[in-house]
Amino acid sequence: MASRRMIGSLFNVPKLGVLKPCEKRMVRSKIGCYRLNGRRTLNVERERALKELKSLIDRVAALEEDHRKDLSRAVSDRENLAAEARRLNVEVQKVMHALSVQREHGKALQSMLGQYEERIRSMENSKLWRLRKQYYRMRALLRTSSDTSRRSMRWLKRATFFVSRQGRTILRKFFAKVFKALYLWTEIRPVRIVVGEAHDRPDLFQVNGDPYHQYMARHFARDSDLREYREDALAFTFRPLISIVMPVFDPPVAFLEAAIRSVVDQAYEHWELCIADDRSTDPDVRKCLERWMKEDTRIKVIFRKENGHICRASNSALELASGEFVALMDHDDLLTPDALYHIVKRLQLHPTLDVLYTDEDKVDEQGKHSDPHFKPQWCPDHLLSRNYFGHLVVLRAALIKEVGGFRPGFEGSQDYDLLLRCTERTQGIVRIPRVLYHWRIHAGSAAHGEDVKPYAYDAARKALTEALERRGEPGEVSFLDGFRGYGIRFTSPLRGKVSIIIPTKDQAQVLRTCLTSIFALTDHPDFEVLVVSNNSKEKELFELLAEMKSAHPGRFDWIAHDVPFNFSELMNTGSKHTSGEQVLFLNNDTEVLHADWLRAMHEWSQRPSIGAVGVKLLYHNDSIQHAGVVIGLGGVAGHTFVGTHRDGPGYFNYVNTINNNSAVTAACMMVERAKLERIGGWDQDFTVEYNDVDLCLRLRESGVNNVYLPHVTLYHYESLTRGHPHMTRESYERHLREVGLFKARWKGYIDDDPCYNPNLSRGVHDWQFAV
Model's pTM, two decimal places? Predict the structure, then answer.
């Protein structure tokens, strides 16, 4: 009854004892509606609650993400602050070192000033000074006499000066320079490649004062040369088919026409041109290719149905190739008409070669030639700093197939990636020192500038990183400024100790600068320093040695080797008194500039393929003193880029890229002890000059490569201890003897340094055209 009363009150039902059937139906209907509305209300409330819960979850997730980012930033800030603290600590050490050097320099100047003052007082009190006064009185009397007396006095003064010690020194220096200049002038010979009739092709070889155009006029093939090459090619006993692979995508049609024409005009005619059009959008490109297919059956073309970019297009062109060798060519560049002739001519002598590359230049839209790149012979470590092979490159087809052709994902540096993989599989690699390829400069080409295809540099870094991993020498690859190459820092653990050997004779202040910079800056975990004193007499030097031995126990020592100066003997003696697996030979007049210099050299020196490791040395004005040695430069051997700015770039940025050089200077040179002992150490017949160059060449002949590292820099104040090597008659005779010995032993390198190029000058100026 209570429930009925409640229902009646809810639905306004009259209070009747018994409900009528119609009223019961109405009550049931209202109860049903109430339940339905209740469910709807509950669903709405539930959905609202779910939305609020989801919102809360999202807010919590956002807060967690913000917290994670804040934490990450805090960690990064902490690392940056730690790095900045380390940098500031290094800077403080540098400043403290500089202050110490300046303080010592000030003390030395103060001491010298006191000595000079004492000498002046002594001179003023001497009999010579009184005689000087009498001399001036007599000269004053003579000046009052006739003109003849004055002229006689002048000649007497001159004669007296030149027989004095100072005058004899000046005359000796003057004649030493004159005789050396005459010696170099008579020794230097021009190097030629091709000399033909000067008027065969006046349209191409108009000499206009540009040194390279002068070079072209003398060295590029003439029509008469090409006629001779065609006849010679017919007589070749080895006539391989050369497949020229050319991927094509929307080139300017005029440049494409010229590229194909340069292939058709080859003096060596056993070739095929394999073109893959990567779905060009310009219909004239297709018309051009179809026309050439009809005109010459040696031209094969595949028209791809979809654009796959240059790697896939190059592989499509490779599928057309049936030749034993493959030449790589871009769709807008030019071959010289004698390009394939010289490739096959070299193969006549060495048919087992797998990789051949040539010199090249650039040609603009008006046909003007510039920027010739005269390349070194095979330099494996230089290839790790950039693709110096460039164009023209010819590879054995079987080798390309063996490494898997071009790899998608390396667009823009696909050739570089291919070469890195191919050169890992063969040592049959040779350079042909002739310009046989013209790289087109126009707005859409990579020759126009580094920023045209920036993605190419990322691809190259990826290719280098993978190459290092494949070779079991992992490392970090960095960009050089302006995309001019790549820096390599190996990450394998450093093995063993480094022994630093420094020869000296007196010059305590010079040596102090060197030693202080080493111990203040060097972050290498395991090194020792040995100073080899040769005939030192100054008290200050021995005080410095005792001070250093006390300050750095277990890391510093010195020995006396008092024999007539022989640099090679001093280095051999120092090596015997040290125990490090790596040996660093360092001049006493050098100064370390950054903390990781020794680590960077050690990374390279411990590699099995490396002999001597050299670095960039600077004069005090930040110009270059050493950036590698060229054999034959100046008639014997010489440093490159001397006097140029420390950042170069020099010829094709050689100043700032890792290079294989035939030799580097021992002013700062590291060699693994086992490799040094294998060649018998330093040759003591070279007492002063060319001993380091001889050592490097013997290392090279033993099967390892010498390397120049541009990212390691030191100051080298050069020969502050010993002075000029040609100052006396005895020293000049010794110089001639050592030059003669070097020339007799290394004539082949003098005639053609494999890390240089015969088209470049070997006179007093390096890296210029040998016109």
Answer: 0.74
